[in-house]
User: Which sequence fits this backbone?
């Protein structure tokens, strides 16, 4: 084996030994913990409106769709929830770790139909 190749093999061997001494990271546990924190923030989400149909309390809403990304290693975790209130109106809640900023927004029936596809339910008349 040429000297350069032999040196590379030695370097990679040393690096592999060093990596094996590092503690294993359990990203799935970290992500579960972060998701649980995000869901706790969601459960506190609420907004009042003059017309009760457009009021929202997460504790009485039905989650229709959940989208999440990140949360592995050092990537920020993002959570978006589409939920329906008892009046059949849809809302979008979104937050990104460390969960200091949150957004709760009413979603029109037309937009909800597009975003939710088969999970969409028409409001009762």
Assistant:
């Amino acid at each position: 084996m040429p000297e350069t190749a032999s040196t590379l093999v030695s370097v990679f061997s040393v690096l592999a030994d060093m990596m094996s001494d590092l503690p294993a990271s359990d990203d799935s546990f970290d992500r579960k913990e972060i998701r649980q924190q995000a869901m706790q923030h969601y459960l506190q989400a609420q907004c009042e409106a003059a017309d009760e149909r457009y009021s929202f309390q997460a504790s009485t809403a039905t989650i229709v769709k959940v989208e999440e990304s990140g949360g592995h290693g050092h990537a920020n975790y993002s959570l978006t929830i589409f939920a329906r209130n008892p009046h059949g109106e849809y809302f979008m809640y979104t937050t990104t770790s460390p969960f200091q900023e949150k957004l709760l927004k009413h979603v029109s029936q037309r937009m909800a139909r597009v975003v939710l596809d088969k999970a969409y339910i028409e409001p009762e008349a």
